[in-house]
Write a structure and sequence with these properties.
- This protein is mainly α.
- It has a domain at about 75-115.
- Helix content is about 75%, strand content about 0%.
- The chain has four helices and no strands.
- Helix 2 (about 35-55) runs antiparallel to helix 3 (about 60-85).
- The relative contact order is 0.13.
Length: about 120
């Protein structure tokens, strides 16, 4: 084989190996969480906040801030469900999931910022 043929073969093999990776990344677009997840996450996050208060990891101000965030998400979910006959659209579920992700990170950060009650 000459040099050009080897280079072409190598490029073809590399391209062939990259196809599954490219197909996989396009399939991992943001998917709405399954039904029931929002309620479970709400309960879990409330328990994490309560545990932080009990252990002294969260100050009163931090707790109030986190509770306001949770209340805002809960109100938004309630209003969206009222507007859509008790259901959330996939886009609304994705939005709530993002908000819950941010709140979860905020809970972690506030619990681990070395401020104690």
């Amino acid at each position: 084989m000459n040099m050009h043929a080897k280079a072409f073969m190598l490029a073809a093999v590399v391209a062939g190996l990259m196809l599954p990776a490219a197909a996989q990344t396009s399939a991992t677009t943001a998917v709405a969480p399954p039904p029931g997840t929002i309620h479970r996450r709400k309960e879990n996050q409330q328990a994490r906040i309560a545990q932080g208060v009990k252990s002294g990891q969260l100050t009163a101000g931090e707790t109030a801030h986190l509770e306001k965030r949770e209340a805002r998400i809960n109100k938004e979910v309630h209003n969206e469900r009222v507007a859509n006959g008790g259901k959330l659209t996939p886009a609304e579920r994705r939005q709530v999931n993002r908000q819950q992700n941010r709140t979860s990170r905020a809970i972690y950060r506030k619990k681990h910022n070395d401020r104690v009650q």
